[in-house]
Structure formats: structure tokens, C-alpha cells
């Protein structure tokens, strides 16, 4: 099988990831912070080491500002519901995933916030000046994807922050953490939500949220933390304030191993390889008059995500053919981002999304090009 569904979750993972998960299960799978015995202490050390590694990876400074979650969706909900307790005006874009749009829609429907959705170009591009023009007197938050999960378009989040230094910026890095260099300090990011199981190469069920020291979030979940157990009030200090309940220790160990792999390999090396894959795929598909590429069609302006349609063909049928006839795994339809597809002009049918990782090869791209050409030509016949 040629796996081109890495925007959903990366596969394969480095062997070291699964080795770390198994080693944790055998040697350090106590409950961290709850007990003093060796297994619990070992688990606490693993959690701390992973937190430190992520803080270094993102240049986040104090590692206590990194909290672990089950995924980027949980991180985004934690940020949105935790920060917007007093309401206000929120700005987002028309290219956001439902992990952003559904919480914002709910808050808007409940009358707790007002919302401006800044329209993007038909290639999914955002003009930072459009975001600045959307600011109101009571604007409390800007929420933006770092790159589209549909077509890969990279957003100029640092440029947005430069124009709006006084407004907190929440960045959805589900598609970019591990795939693009992210420097929290340099970019001026106030909150960063990330998936552990995509570009960071960790297991599913992992993710996290960075929160700047200047921000305080109300916890969306309260309970046991192993700290201040005598107090009925939930702890207000980080990371305990946002980490109630037993953490996914084996998953965090695997995530740490994924981060180590990226640190050893170099994110720049990963990016260069994924750009070469994207270029080969785009160049191979661009010449066919029935295949349309949606998005920038430029590896320098997008992640390794390429969305296509074939005239007269249902995206779901194309994906089934790729799987059944050519052994290529991908994803079709709306990709949990209907507003993005409306922006691209691909709603309601959606697209066929091919998404690559560091472990794909140039030969994989050549086979995908041949397969899509064959499907397009079958329809012509």
C-alpha cells in the first residue's frame, strides 16, 4: 500500500516511537504525580522530559506552559472555551477546520461571542490586512490555522501578529507541527494547539496546547491532578490547571520519541523532502486537462497536501478506485472543513486529498500520478 493520508495521521511512525510506547508499558507505566513508588516516579520523569522536549522544539520557554491533550481538537476546545469565558469578538478565517469552527459557532449561537470570518482567496490564501480590517473595539482573539488541512495553504501567522500585537493569537498547528519550523517567540504566537500523531510522528491520542504566560485559561475539565489534593478548588497553576485526570503516559512517551526523531533528522530536512514530493506530484498532475489542483499548487506556499478533482468524477469514487485498483490510501470528500471547501469552490462534493510524509518516496508520487491519469482517462474513454 502507498499511504497518502498523512494529513489524517502519519503512517508509518519511526520504530523508536513504538519502542518507547512498549518500554513505558513495561517499565514506567505508573500514575505520575499520584504516588511515590518507582513506577509512578518513572512516569513523572517521562512526562516532564517530553514536556521539556516540546518546549525546546517550539521555542516555548517555560515547559510548564505546555499541556498535554488527547489531540488538537481537545487543545483547541480547551483554548477557546477556557479563554473566551467573558465573551467578546473573535476573528477567524474561511479555511478553518471544524475543530475551530464548531466551538466558535456554538459560542456564537449561545450569544457568548460575536464572530467575523475573514474570507480567503479561491486558493485558500489569507491577506493579513483583511484580518486587521476586521478588528473591533472588543476583539479578544484571532484564531487561525497555520496551514489548511484541505489544500495545504500556509498562513502568514507571524505577519498577522505583527499587524495586531495587542490581540492574542491562537494558532491551529495540527497540520504543521513537525512539518514546518515553528518558533513561538519569533512568530508571536500566544496559544498553539498541536496534534501529536501527525507531523510530530507520535501515537494517536496525543496532542497539546501552549499557553503564553500572559494568558490565563479557565479549565474546561477539573478533577484529580496529584497536586493540592487537600483543596476542593482546582489548581490554578500550570500545567495542572489544564491537565485534570490520568495522562496518556505511553502515548506521551511515544510522542517524545517522535520529537527526538525530528530533532535528530531536522525539520528543515523533513520540509525539503516533503517539498520535493509535493513538486513531483503537482508537476505530474498539472498537465492533464481533466485534473484540477486546488490550492496554491506551489510547494513553497503549502504543506505536503495536494487536493484534486477530476471533471465528471465523484471524489469518493476516485478514492475508492485509488484504493481498490492501485493500492493508494487517501481521503476524499469535505475533510471536516466545509467552509474551506466553499472557499475553494469544491463544496458540496469535496476533493481527493493526497497528503505525504517524510517516509513517502518519489516513486510513490510517480505511481500516484499514473493512477490519477489512468482514472481520468478511463472517464474520457
Question: Tags for this entry?
Answer:
alpha/beta, pyridoxal phosphate, about 375 residues, Aspartate Aminotransferase, domain 1, single chain, Aminotrans_V_PyrdxlP_BS, four-stranded antiparallel β-sheet
Description:
- The protein is built from 12 helices and 13 strands.
- The protein is 39% helix and 15% strand.
- Helix 6 links the parallel strand 5 and strand 6.
- The mean pLDDT is 97.
- It has a domain of 123 residues: Aspartate Aminotransferase, domain 1.
- Helix 9 runs parallel beside helix 12 and helix 10 crosses helix 12.
- The chain is α/β, with parallel strands linked by helices.
- A 7-stranded mixed sheet has the order 2-8-7-6-5-3-4, with helices on both faces. Strands 9-10-13-12 form a 4-stranded antiparallel sheet. A two-stranded parallel ribbon has the order 1-11.
- The radius of gyration is 21 Å and the shape is globular.
- Keywords: Pyridoxal phosphate.
- Its cofactor is pyridoxal 5'-phosphate.
- Its EC number is 2.8.1.7.
- It catalyses: (sulfur carrier)-H + L-cysteine = (sulfur carrier)-SH + L-alanine.
- GO terms for molecular function: cysteine desulfurase activity.
Task: Supply the number of helical segments.
Answer: 12
Could you report the average pLDDT, rounded to the nearest whole number?
Answer: 97
Q: What is the 3D shape?
A: globular
- The CATH H-level homologous superfamily of the domain at 2-9 and 266-380: Aspartate Aminotransferase, domain 1
Biggest sheet overview = 7 strands, mixed
How helical, in percent, are the residues? 25-40%
The first-level CATH class of the domain at 2-9 and 266-380 is given as Alpha Beta
Uncertain segments: none
For this structure, the CATH topology of the domain at 2-9 and 266-380 is: Aspartate Aminotransferase, domain 1
Beta-strand content estimate = 5-15%
What does the radius of gyration come to? 21 Å
The CATH architecture of the domain at 2-9 and 266-380: Alpha-Beta Complex
- Largest sheet strand order: 2-8-7-6-5-3-4
Amino acid at each position: 500500500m502507498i499511504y497518502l493520508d498523512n494529513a489524517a495521521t502519519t503512517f508509518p511512525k519511526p520504530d523508536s516511537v513504538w519502542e518507547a510506547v512498549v518500554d513505558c508499558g513495561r517499565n514506567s507505566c505508573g500514575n505520575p504525580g499520584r504516588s511515590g513508588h518507582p513506577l509512578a516516579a518513572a512516569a513523572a520523569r517521562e512526562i516532564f522530559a517530553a514536556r521539556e522536549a516540546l518546549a525546546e522544539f517550539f521555542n516555548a520557554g517555560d515547559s510548564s506552559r505546555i499541556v498535554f491533550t488527547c489531540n488538537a481538537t481537545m487543545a483547541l476546545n480547551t483554548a477557546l472555551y477556557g479563554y473566551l469565558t467573558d465573551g467578546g469578538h473573535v476573528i477567524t478565517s474561511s479555511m478553518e477546520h471544524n475543530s475551530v469552527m464548531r466551538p466558535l459557532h456554538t459560542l456564537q449561537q449561545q450569544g457568548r461571542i460575536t464572530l467575523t470570518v475573514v474570507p480567503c482567496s479561491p486558493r485558500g490564501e489569507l491577506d493579513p490586512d483583511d484580518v486587521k480590517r476586521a478588528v473591533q473595539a472588543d476583539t479578544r482573539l484571532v484564531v487561525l490555522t497555520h496551514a489548511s488541512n484541505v489544500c495545504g495553504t500556509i498562513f502568514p501567522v507571524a505577519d498577522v501578529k505583527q499587524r495586531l500585537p495587542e490581540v492574542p493569537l491562537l494558532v491551529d498547528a495540527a497540520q504543521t507541527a513537525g512539518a514546518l519550523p515553528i518558533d513561538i517567540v519569533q512568530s508571536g504566537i500566544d496559544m498553539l494547539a498541536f496534534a501529536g500523531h501527525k507531523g510530530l510522528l507520535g501515537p494517536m491520542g496525543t496532542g497539546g496546547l501552549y499557553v503564553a504566560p500572559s494568558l490565563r485559561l479557565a479549565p474546561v475539565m477539573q478533577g484529580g491532578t496529584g497536586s493540592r489534593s487537600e483543596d476542593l478548588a482546582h489548581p490554578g497553576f500550570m500545567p495542572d490547571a489544564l491537565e485534570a485526570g490520568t495522562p496518556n503516559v505511553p502515548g506521551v512517551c511515544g510522542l517524545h520519541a517522535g520529537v527526538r526523531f525530528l530533532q535528530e533528522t531536522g525539520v528543515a530536512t523533513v520540509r525539503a523532502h516533503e517539498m520535493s514530493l509535493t513538486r513531483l506530484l503537482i508537476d505530474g498532475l498539472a498537465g492533464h486537462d481533466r485534473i484540477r489542483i486546488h490550492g496554491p499548487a506551489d510547494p513553497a506556499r503549502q504543506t505536503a497536501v495536494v487536493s484534486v478533482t477530476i471533471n465528471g468524477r465523484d471524489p469518493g469514487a476516485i478514492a475508492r478506485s485509488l484504493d481498490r485498483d492501485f493500492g493508494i490510501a487517501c481521503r476524499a470528500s469535505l475533510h471536516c472543513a466545509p467552509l474551506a471547501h466553499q472557499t475553494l469552490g469544491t463544496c458540496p462534493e469535496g476533493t481527493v486529498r493526497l497528503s505525504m510524509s517524510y517516509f513517502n518516496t518519489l516513486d510513490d508520487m510517480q505511481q500516484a500520478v499514473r493512477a490519477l491519469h489512468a482514472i481520468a482517462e478511463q472517464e474520457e474513454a
